[in-house]
Description:
Elements: E1 7-11, H1 12-25, H2 30-41, E2 53-55, H3 56-70, H4 75-79, E3 81-84, E4 87-90, H5 100-116, E5 120-125, H6 131-139, E6 143-149, H7 152-163, E7 172-176, E8 191-196, H8 209-212, H9 228-236, E9 241-250, H10 256-265, E10 270-275, E11 281-287
Parallel strand pairs: 5-6, 5-8, 6-7, 8-9
Antiparallel strand pairs: 1-2, 3-4, 9-11, 10-11
Helix pairs in contact: 1-2, 2-3, 5-6
Amino acid sequence: MKSDSVKSTVSWRALLDEAIHNFSEVGLPEIEARWITEEAAGGQLIGVSFEELVTNRAMAHYDNLISRRLNGEPLQYVLGHWQFRKLDLMVDQRVLIPRPETEVLVNHALDEIDRQGNEVLVADLGTGSGAIGFSIAVERISTQVWCTDLSEEALMVARANLAGLGQPAKRVSLCQGSWFEALPKSLQGKLGLVISNPPYVPTSETLPLEVKDWEPSMALYGGREGTDYLQKLIHESPSWLASKGALILEMSPNQTESMSSLALSKGFNEVFVGSDLADKPRLLVARKS
């Protein structure tokens, strides 16, 4: 039996060419072929390494990754990690894939933290991989962040990501439970910011297969109109927020108008809608004062 370290007669360049060809036949972009080949190689394919022969172990890893992508698994899950702002996050089927729209959500969160100044207590509800809450902890050292999720499996992913966060991890707490119920009661009335990317897809909506078949349904669907959890968070946030606190929620463009009206009816004094990278209304910022 050959050792796993024994090299084949195939170079990384040949495997990359093969991946590009196979991906082009099914309409997948060339860049994905490069990313997956580089992942299998354990780093970037540059210089002489591009011509290196592939070991048996690396060949098996490459075959597995390519097969998974060709079978429709999202690129981010195939790679096992994905960039979100300053973080390289572990992601798999237990959590939603972090998206650029949510990076914009964090921008607004940082603005709110800067507006309040001093130490700000933050709750990231439905944290998933930890993308939102961990980004806030890394980019604003004045924060203490509580990240919650109902899914224990999602929190397992978040814990793995927290372990690689370094010093900011000391200012992050992970809690298992449903929305505000997961938080310590001592935080009631003291949070400077409540932020969430909750499930907001209507149950009747048809999603792309790459989303529907792979990402966790409990993190996608928000009831018949998609607003069940949005409404819950708007209803319950005021009692958890400090006097100058703010609520920030991601949602569908067609939900922003009704959720803005609801926030105003629940005592938020300032409410405005923010746009995503495609200039579509995508998030709600509601301030108590």
